[in-house]
Design goal:
The chain has helices spanning 16-25, 75-86, and strands at residues 2-6, 29-35, 38-46, 49-55, 62-68, 90-95, 98-102. It is globular, with a radius of gyration of 14 Å. It contains 2 helices and 7 strands, in the order βαββββαββ. With 105 residues, the chain is of the alpha+beta class. A 5-stranded antiparallel sheet has the order 1-5-4-3-2, sandwiched between helices. Strands 6-7 form a two-stranded antiparallel sheet. The mean pLDDT is 86.
Amino acid sequence: MLVSLIPPPPSRPVPVEAVALDAKKRNRSVSLIQAPAGTGIRTHGSATDTLFYFSVPGSGAWLLLAFSGPDGPLASAMADLFDAIAGTLRWSVIEPGIPLARGIK
């Protein structure tokens, strides 16, 4: 699992639809998921190549959770594990206006 913060572009925040469309242009399957952190975007390149994007509240930035694992007999179980981990993401506020991702267990 790799966690990355994608800063907002200087011009304007990137809407959910644009992130999903970009993934589709890269031949990835795209679906929306619901997590405590809000609506996220899940993209698959293969069963064990899964990316999750969550919009960081109030910032225009995106949090990217990237998962990769071996193909083979455990691929389906690994994909379920990736979904379960991403599904626990929630935001907390450590200072007014500064969200903090937490709850990934």
